[in-house]
Each structure stands twice: as C-alpha cells, then as structure tokens.
Design brief:
The two termini are 18 Å apart. With 184 residues, the protein is mostly helical. 35% of the residues are buried. 61% of the residues lie in helices and 5% in strands. α2 packs antiparallel against α3. It is globular.
Length: 184
C-alpha cells in the first residue's frame, strides 16, 4: 500500500512538472516550473527568487544523477517515481530539493509580511501554479490544521512533507496540488 500511494502521488506530480507534456522531464520543464514559482515573488524579491531557482536546479541535478537510468538526459515517469521514492525523499536530499522550494515560496507569497498565508495568498498561489482554482478552498481548509483562517509556515512544511512522504491516502498534505484519494 505504501508504495502504491506514493507512486500515485508522484505520478500526479510528474504530470504537473511535465510542462512540455511529452512524457519526459527535462531541465527545461524544471526551469519552467521554477519560472512559475518565482513569478509569485514580488518585484525585487531577489533572495526568494534565487532560493527557488537554486532549489529547482538542485532537484534537476538529483533527478538526473539518481534517476536517469538510461542516460538520455531526460527522466521518464517510471524513472521519476523510482528516484522520488529512493532518493529525493531521502533525508539527505529532501531539505535541499523540496523543502527549500517550499520555504522560499511561503516567504515570497506572504505579501503582507504577517508570517502566514491567508486564503487570498493561497488561492493566488494555487492559480498561478496552474492548479485548478475550484480545489483551492478545500485545499486551504484541509491545510489550515488549527482552523485559524491562515496557513502558517509550519503548516505548509507539514503539508509538503505529507505529500512527499506520507503513505496515508487521507493526509491533508495530499491536497497540495489538487484532490487525491478516496475522500477527494
């Protein structure tokens, strides 16, 4: 069950990252994703833009190094799922390849500087990242664990960690990029 749940999530993630829609991940796909994420930062927010770009480059480096098993300079769906389960989500890579993106994103999205994401900030992120907006309200509610009407940096990190690491099909973090699982 564990592997099946993670494989399904990583397959959904693959489709989201495959910006070219050709069934292969390339450096260009990761750079396009970085562009979507950095586009959420305010003008002049160079620190968070650089942090997000660097983290996407690190993710690409790890994908190719550990996942490109046929040496073609691309990562197929099967290669992606395998490398995500074996390497990217391992403790030595997870922080630099995944959480670094999340941390810079939250800092960039917190447009009013209050240290949390309100519903409007979260919906803006959802829409800008190409995730269907009709799911953003439900996702926000699920990720706002303490029900205070905001998503704290800690709640966002928890959601990211659940999406990548949890085998629980009902984990709230699975809603990061849309509905997932039987309760969706």
């Amino acid at each position: 069950m564990t592997s099946a749940v993670k494989s399904q999530k990583f397959s959904i993630l693959f489709d989201w990252i495959d910006q070219g829609g050709d069934g292969q991940l390339t450096r260009g796909d990761l750079r396009s994703m970085a562009g979507l994420f950095t586009g959420l930062a305010a003008d002049g927010d160079d620190a968070n833009v650089t942090a997000m770009r660097d983290a996407f480059e690190e993710m690409w480096r790890l994908l190719v190094k550990h996942g490109d098993t046929d040496g073609d300079g691309q990562v197929s769906r099967q290669e992606f799922i395998a490398v995500m389960e074996a390497n990217i989500t391992s403790p030595q890579h997870f922080e630099s390849a995944v959480l670094a993106i999340a941390d810079a994103l939250v800092k960039a999205l917190d447009t009013d500087g209050d240290g949390v994401l309100n519903r409007d900030e979260y919906v803006r992120m959802y829409t800008s990242l190409g995730i269907p907006q009709e799911h953003s309200g439900e996702a926000f509610t699920r990720l706002d664990r303490d029900g205070d009407g905001t998503i704290s940096h800690a709640e966002f990190r928890t959601a990211i960690t659940e999406f990548y690491l949890s085998a629980d099909v009902d984990a709230p973090g699975n809603w990061l990029i849309g509905p997932f699982g039987p309760s969706a």
